[in-house]
Write a structure and sequence with these properties.
The chain is mainly beta and 296 residues long. The chain has no helices and 25 strands. Helix content is 0%, strand content 44%.
């Protein structure tokens, strides 16, 4: 229900208003990104892409136009990413888009059933650039790697007959951590770590008999904080911290008898602020703050 800005004490809410100019194009917010110039980009589910002007506190929208092939390919924006060249990539329900800032037009990368080198699917869930400059894209039906020279994609899919394939095709999030490991979160197949040399995947799955396994196989988000701690957000199992040496997980979950625990086990996103506090957003129970210094 809009975009909330928190200044440390109070929230200000920005919402779409059809009776006013330069407001948000839609109040359902799915993705945010800040570019190297400090500009905030806002992805909405139904209103396209918005660019926020902090000086005027106004928004400019970019939307699909069926008469303009260089417009945004779809108005449902589910993921945003700013790469090392300060280019804005926009993941929609109708393909991957690259914004040309000078002309304010878009180049779309879309799935073509007759071209195996096209992107795996048009529903784009996640985008990540690794340290070697490679762009990785998580889609609803597989993982795609873009070759910047040819604009071709290499796609990786789950194969039930290959235990080294990705464990599930819905790739919700991608992270290259400080150790150089490439992590993928999936909708139903837990957490995956990819070996890019062998192009194989190691899956970390929930095991009801092992309290040190990941708490849920539906994993929304993975985040590495400034201390090198890897946090994993799940749909029904709260938050996990991954121990690289033991390959085990410590769980942080909601306890109805303890007000200092998570407000919900349905955690969608994790972020660290400038003070080192970790913030967890739930889908239905608000926002939680964790202070590592006091561990609560």
């Amino acid at each position: 229900d809009g975009l909330a800005r928190f200044d440390g004490q109070d929230f200000r809410i920005f919402r779409a208003d059809k009776d006013k100019q330069n407001t948000l194009s839609h109040s359902n917010i799915f993705a945010l990104a800040i570019d190297q110039d400090g500009v905030l980009w806002v992805g909405t589910d139904g209103g396209g892409l918005n660019r926020y002007d902090a000086a005027t506190e106004s928004f400019k929208s970019f939307q699909y136009d069926e008469n303009d092939p260089s417009s945004l390919s779809n108005d449902s924006v589910w993921s945003l990413y700013v790469d090392s060249k300060n280019q804005v990539w926009v993941g929609t329900r109708g393909g991957l888009n690259l914004l040309d800032r000078d002309t304010e037009t878009f180049t779309a990368y879309q799935h073509d059933e007759e071209n195996p080198r096209s992107i795996a699917n048009d529903i784009i869930l996640s985008i990540e650039e690794t340290s070697d400059g490679t762009l990785w894209v998580g889609t609803r039906t597989g993982l795609s790697r873009l070759d910047a020279e040819t604009n071709d994609f290499t796609n990786y899919y789950h194969n039930e007959e290959n235990p080294d394939s990705i464990s599930d095709n819905q790739v919700w999030d991608i992270l290259e951590d400080s150790a150089g490991d490439l992590w993928l979160t999936t909708r139903y197949g837990g957490l995956n770590r990819m070996d890019r040399e062998t192009e194989t995947f190691e899956a970390f799955l929930h095991n009801e008999d092992d309290p040190t396994s990941i708490s849920d196989n539906s994993v929304f988000h993975i985040y590495e904080d400034s201390r090198g701690t890897v946090w994993v957000a799940t749909e029904k199992g709260g938050v996990n911290i991954f121990d690289r040496e033991s390959k085990t997980f410590a769980r942080y979950q909601h306890d109805p008898n303890d007000d200092l625990t998570l407000s919900s086990d349905d955690i969608f996103w994790i972020m660290e602020d400038a003070s080192g506090s970790i913030w967890f957003s739930s889908r239905r129970a608000g926002v939680n703050q964790y202070a590592p210094a006091i561990q609560r």
